[in-house]
Amino acid sequence: MLRLRRRVSTMTILSIIFSLFSLMLKSEGANHIVGDSSGWELLTNFTNWTQGREFHVGDVLVFNYNKDQHNVMQVNSTAYSDCGRDNYISIFTKGNDSVIISEAGEHWFICGVNNHCENGQKLSIDVAP
Ligand SMILES: *[C@@H]1O[C@H](CO)[C@@H](O)[C@H](O)[C@H]1NC(C)=O
Ligand SMILES: *[C@@H]1O[C@H](CO)[C@@H](O)[C@H](O)[C@H]1NC(C)=O
Ligand SMILES: *[C@@H]1O[C@H](CO)[C@@H](O)[C@H](O)[C@H]1NC(C)=O
Ligand SMILES: *[C@@H]1O[C@H](CO)[C@@H](O)[C@H](O)[C@H]1NC(C)=O
Ligand SMILES: [Cu+2]
């Protein structure tokens, strides 16, 4: 009886520790290096990159690119489809931009330089709460 109780309380403590730990991990937010080592560049396949990847609110997208050749525009779905550059939500131009995802739902990014977007330099992600 005593031994059983002790085992139960050890399990309880372990599970509390585990929950706290997962909460901590969750609130930290994951860093996603867009395109991995290829970066935010013309020849990267971003559809491929998003496959099997989960995005959550609080995560960070890191865009690495040559700032003389590219930029990052966060846009709405229309501009994503049309590669429209006139009404962006935000623009990033530093070449190593960290974008914190603060809302659930779909997010769209394009490169606004020349015809890069038309050539596939665009990213669409679905963010879970
Ligand atoms: C990118 O990758 C996806 C999935 O692997 C594939 O369906 C698509 O054809 C690729 N696009 C290009 C331009 O290679
Ligand atoms: C998709 O990415 C994987 C590595 O993440 C790579 O091995 C594969 O060749 C890529 N496919 C395409 C179509 O780019
Ligand atoms: C995207 O923004 C443009 C310009 O403000 C607007 O005309 C268009 O309707 C918007 N698209 C969506 C899906 O909200
Ligand atoms: C980003 O790049 C700028 C210069 O373009 C540099 O000053 C800064 O230290 C870089 N930040 C990181 C996190 O690499
Ligand atoms: Cu570009």
TrEMBL record:
The keyword Zinc-finger does not apply. Pfam families: Cu_bind_like. The keyword Glycoprotein applies. Keywords: Copper, Glycoprotein, GPI-anchor, Lipoprotein, Membrane, Metal-binding, Signal. One of its GO terms (molecular function) is metal ion binding. Residues 30-129 form the Phytocyanin domain. PROSITE patterns: PHYTOCYANIN. GO terms for cellular component: side of membrane. Residues 1-29 form the signal peptide. This is Mavicyanin.
